[in-house]
Design the sequence.
């Protein structure tokens, strides 16, 4: 039975998942790097820094990673580019392997590792699952209806986690396709930046619909090349998450793209924000991974060029619109 859940990372998404696990009746311990977050939750029952609207009644906050070794399962919710060092800090705290649920979305920039590959190497022997899907943190925290994918090669573990976290308003759907579930979450953030640029530049709704559709084709190509099933990309963690993230100003990645499309500098946009827009680093890491597998991803490559400063918005738009006409026979072409 999974009764005690530790949440590693107290940003908006980690806080929302802590509230969800508590709502499901679990004992929840939330680890935060920031001392002010621990103090805020302990004293007022709210995460004043990242999600002040939400009461966290019954959630224990700590800045001591050793407390995570006392749990039945851990939700790892630190940003993808910081997950490896956190896992290394966590390793001596885990006397025995316990289930780890990966909730960060991305590809490690330095190595090209998916989060599951990273954790398998940093914390070998730990049972793994991935939680992903169309989820704005504030809506999940408020208990609004949400459906997500829970993926694990161990389907019994996936069902046990679904029972521990799920409820009428938080509905997990189980799959064994870990790679496909991860890939949707990583690529959709890059595509959301591109869709934001379309909005900020005033290119119209037709352009955004085309970009989402052709972006989905890129997602599928990369996922299948990594061994995933195409059908997973058509589910909650792929198409579902892409639709949400690429069409709402609540999305950090979409809103960043809008600002870029309006002509603002990336450094200025990031300087105003406390929360991480995963798509900035994922644009580079996803593109590098695609190149290593000889997979063509022109939209993701264009975003990578934009956020790295190698290309201007006019350059990337002109480059995409001047590509040769292609066929739409499926998701295995390169158009």
Sequence:
């Amino acid at each position: 039975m999974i009764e005690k859940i530790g949440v590693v990372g107290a940003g908006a998404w980690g806080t929302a998942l802590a509230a969800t696990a508590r709502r499901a009746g679990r004992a929840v311990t939330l680890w935060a790097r920031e001392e002010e977050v621990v103090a805020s939750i302990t004293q007022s029952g709210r995460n004043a820094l990242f999600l002040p609207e939400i009461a966290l009644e019954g959630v224990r906050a700590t800045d001591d990673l050793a407390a995570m070794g006392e749990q039945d399962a851990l939700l790892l919710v630190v940003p993808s580019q910081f997950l490896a060092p956190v896992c290394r800090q966590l390793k001596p705290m885990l006397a025995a392997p316990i289930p780890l649920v990966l909730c960060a979305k991305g590809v490690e920039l330095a190595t090209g590792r998916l989060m599951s590959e990273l954790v398998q190497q940093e914390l070998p022997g730990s049972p793994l699952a991935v939680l992903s899907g169309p989820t704005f943190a504030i809506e999940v925290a408020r208990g609004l209806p949400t459906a997500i994918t829970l993926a694990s090669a161990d389907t019994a573990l996936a069902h046990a986690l679904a029972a521990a976290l799920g409820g009428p308003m938080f509905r997990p759907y189980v799959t064994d396709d870990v790679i496909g579930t991860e890939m949707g979450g990583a690529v959709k953030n890059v595509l959301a930046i591109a869709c934001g640029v379309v909005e900020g530049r005033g290119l119209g709704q037709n352009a955004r619909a085309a970009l989402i559709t052709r972006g989905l084709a890129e997602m599928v190509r990369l996922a299948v090349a990594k061994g995933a099933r195409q059908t997973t990309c058509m589910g909650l963690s792929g198409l579902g998450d892409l639709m949400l993230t690429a069409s709402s100003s609540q999305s950090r990645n979409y809103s960043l793209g809008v600002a870029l499309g309006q002509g603002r500098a990336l450094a200025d946009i990031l300087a105003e924000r406390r929360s991480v827009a995963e798509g900035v680093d994922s644009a580079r890491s996803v593109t590098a991974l695609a190149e290593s597998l000889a997979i063509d991803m022109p939209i993701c490559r264009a975003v990578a060029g934009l956020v790295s400063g190698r290309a201007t918005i006019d350059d990337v738009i002109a480059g995409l619109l001047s590509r040769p006409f292609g066929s739409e026979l499926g998701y295995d072409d390169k158009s």
